[in-house]
Amino acid sequence: xxxxxxxxxxALLVLTATPKIGRAVAPQPxxxxxxxxxxxxxxxxxxxEGDNFVLAxxxxxxxxxxxxxxxxxxxxxxxxxxxxxxxxxxxxxxxETIEEVA
Length: 102
Description:
With about 100 residues, the chain is an alpha+beta fold. It folds into two domains: about 1-30, no CATH class; about 40-100, CATH 2.40.50.140. The protein has three helices and five strands, in the order H-H-E-E-E-H-E-E. It has helices spanning about 1-15, 30-35, 70-75, and strands at about 40-50, 50-55, 60-65, 80-85, 90-100. The chain has a five-stranded mixed barrel with strand order 1-2-3-5-4. A hairpin with a 2-residue loop joins strand 1 and strand 2 (about 50-55). It is elongated and about 90 Å long.
């Protein structure tokens, strides 16, 4: 009886110590979108608010903080096209490019 209990205990120990092998689960599409946001293009006028620059879109009555003051400062008061990703929580565009539009 003692040998049987030790054998069962040993088998359980081996089974719990063996790493589990399973198939990988792909992330859900919504999770992929959040971890790798897509670049978008926004149009509006660059304006200075305090120490920050914002992109004011009067057509949609929205404005976004621009995270790159150095790039944005060259376009203050001008109509531009900004390409970047939006941080919805802070309403900030992470600027990739800014181009003046005619």
